[in-house]
């Protein structure tokens, strides 16, 4: 039989060599490097190994069996990011496995960073090389754990599972599906990023709507600080007022018009700003 990359096989030890052990399935021979053997092995001993390609592209083996397989999903930490190529994840073996740019968001600013964690399964590329591929929502077949209604307004944490212009999907640490609408975040979260937010709705199907924005009374203080910083860096002038276009406000301050107006109201109450001719001035 042909030994396949990414498979787990039971092979016999044929002999020991300087670099490790030579294993066989009766037809093919494959190297188990000394560093990949868990114990001292004996000739004719049967061992269970995972097959992967080394840096030279040769098929080799390890006794460390990863939890990620072709038919089994699991989390894998990003260990390297390579522009235009993709990211490499640690599946538990000594070699990082590529998640191709073809399977990452079009916008590189929401690509995972080193230390982020992706939910992946193993796959092969067109050349037969072992890769990792992010799991999609279709793979779950809507079989998510149902969240209890008591979670409404509760703090929640989770990992970004999918990101798009419309919003992002997270898997919470409890295993629930949460959706973050683009208006409920100040910046686009990265794929694989760990985020903290709050539940703003528990839907009938047991999934969640989540916000990464603080409660209004706290957010108003933060937004006011953002506007003050802008004023100080731009000669004390903001070219907007509480009647300005919402899109202009969002593109400049990354906040909604409602949040902008609340922040302006606080600053005017504190007598730190004034408005004239459609503009806002630092006092």
In short:
The chain is of the alpha+beta class and 283 residues long.
Explain the overall architecture:
- It is a single chain.
- This protein is α+β, with helices and mostly antiparallel strands and 283 residues long.
- The chain folds into four domains: 8-62, Nucleic acid-binding proteins (OB fold (Dihydrolipoamide Acetyltransferase, E2P), Beta Barrel); 74-135, Nucleic acid-binding proteins (OB fold (Dihydrolipoamide Acetyltransferase, E2P), Beta Barrel); 143-211, OB fold (Dihydrolipoamide Acetyltransferase, E2P) (Beta Barrel), CATH 2.40.50; 216-282, Arc Repressor Mutant, subunit A.
- The protein contains four helices and 18 strands.
- It has helices spanning 137-140, 216-233, 246-253, 257-269, and strands at 8-17, 20-24, 29-33, 46-53, 59-62, 74-82, 86-90, 97-100, 117-124, 130-134, 155-163, 167-172, 177-181, 194-202, 208-211, 237-238, 273-276, 279-282.
- The protein has a five-stranded mixed barrel with strand order 1-2-3-5-4. It has a five-stranded antiparallel sheet with strand order 8-7-6-9-10, with no helix packed on it. The chain has a five-stranded mixed beta barrel with strand order 11-12-13-15-14.
- A hairpin with a 4-residue loop joins strand 12 and strand 13 (177-181).
- Helix 2 crosses helix 4 (257-269).
- It starts with 7 loop residues before the first strand and ends with a strand.
- Residues 153-213 form the S1 motif domain.
- It comes from Aquibacillus rhizosphaerae.
- InterPro entries: CvfB_fam, CvfB_S1_2nd, CvfB_S1_3rd, CvfB_S1_st, CvfB_WH, NA-bd_OB-fold, S1_domain, WH-like_DNA-bd_sf.
């Amino acid at each position: 039989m042909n030994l396949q990359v990414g498979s787990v096989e039971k092979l016999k030890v044929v002999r020991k060599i300087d670099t490790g052990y030579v294993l066989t399935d009766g037809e093919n021979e494959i190297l188990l490097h000394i560093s990949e053997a868990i114990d001292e092995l004996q000739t004719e001993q049967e061992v269970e190994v995972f097959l992967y390609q080394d840096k030279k592209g040769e098929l080799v083996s390890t006794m460390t069996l990863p939890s990620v397989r072709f038919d089994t999903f699991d989390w894998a930490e990003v260990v390297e990011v390579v522009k235009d190529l993709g990211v490499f994840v640690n599946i538990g073996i000594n070699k990082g496995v590529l998640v191709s740019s073809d399977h990452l968001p079009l916008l590189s600013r929401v690509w995972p960073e080193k230390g982020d964690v992706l939910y992946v399964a193993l796959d092969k590329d067109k050349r037969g090389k072992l890769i990792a591929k992010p799991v999609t929502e279709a793979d779950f077949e809507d079989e998510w754990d149902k969240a209890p209604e008591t979670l409404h307004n509760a703090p929640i944490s989770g990992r970004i599972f999918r990101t798009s212009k419309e919003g992002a999907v997270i898997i919470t640490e409890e295993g629930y599906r949460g959706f973050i609408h683009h208006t409920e975040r100040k910046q686009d979260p990265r794929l694989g990023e760990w985020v903290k937010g709050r539940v703003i709705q528990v839907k009938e199907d047991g999934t969640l709507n989540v916000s990464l924005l603080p409660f209004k009374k706290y957010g108003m203080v933060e937004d006011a600080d953002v506007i003050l910083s802008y004023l100080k860096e731009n000669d004390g002038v903001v070219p907007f007022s509480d009647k300005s276009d919402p899109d202009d406000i969002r593109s400049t301050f990354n906040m909604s018009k409602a949040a902008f107006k609340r922040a302006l109201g606080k600053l005017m109450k504190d007598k730190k700003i004034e408005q004239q001719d459609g503009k806002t001035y630092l006092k």
